[in-house]
Amino acid sequence: MRLSMDEIVNAVCLHFAERKGVKPTDVEVQLQWDEDYGYTAEVWVLGRSQYIVEANLLEAIERYMLTEYGRRVFREQIRLGLDDEIWADIAD
């Protein structure tokens, strides 16, 4: 199964909304890839910015897969990739 960049953004929004006690619409996400840092994202919650690393992205995807698809997946089953946009492959 492959998650699109939009689904990864939704996963991060839902994850941070739950953690910060805000609505998902109060969260904005900008996914990034960098040679030095790998996959990261800048997350704004109610106007406050923070950067998250790949481990945080994987945690959000794990939770999203459980809540949205009813599938329990582990980090080693998730592979992030980049073509024109960032995607995540989920192994069975």
UniProtKB/TrEMBL annotation:
**Which InterPro entries does the record associate with it?**
Uncharacterised_YxcD (IPR020516)
Name of the protein in its database record = DUF2653 domain-containing protein
Q: Which organism is it from?
A: Thermobacillus composti (strain DSM 18247 / JCM 13945 / KWC4)
